[in-house]
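Worked example

This section walks through a single chain of length 187. The input is the sequence exactly as stored; nothing has been trimmed or padded.
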Amino acid sequence: MDRDRLVDVGVALVSRFGAKALSLTSVARQAGVARATAYRMFGGRDALVDAIMSREMEQLRQQMLQWGADQPDPAMRIRERVKGSLAYIREHEALQYVLRNEPEEVVRALISPAPEASDKASHRSLIGMITDTAVPDVRDDEAAVLYPSVRGGSEFMVRIVYSCMLVPESSMTDDEIADLVVRAVVR
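Given that input, the structure is written out below as tokens.
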């Protein structure tokens, strides 16, 4: 049994029972390993959550690199990333479970840093973490047009996408939302 497999099991448990039910004991039980094995690999729940978040951030990053990659126009690339992000959120089982059953967990993660975070790097909100994940991959032609800055434009896009996640009912289509975002951040 390796760490990646236990992370898979952790995500599956969140998809079925929510973030509050996630524990090393429940992951070990579901994976069919001794509890001591899970504790040896992670040390505690916080390390498991960090591993899950790291994996989820990398998967999102890889998706963002693909969405719109074939678009020569930076505005169209950005538009495709917004649309892809909206669809990604709707299809993410664990996130959707938590949104339906434990929305306070998502809101807390989006707006405030983890209270137990002891170092500055992990003391960020989910908005900050996703922005930090996206900014290094911004292409030069995108950086040249993002308003008010690369970080500011990227953060605005993340905020809009996650506001759509929290309040999914809309009179706008994903295309219309993406068009509005592009109009706001591309100069």
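What to look for: The two ends are 50 Å apart (CA to CA).
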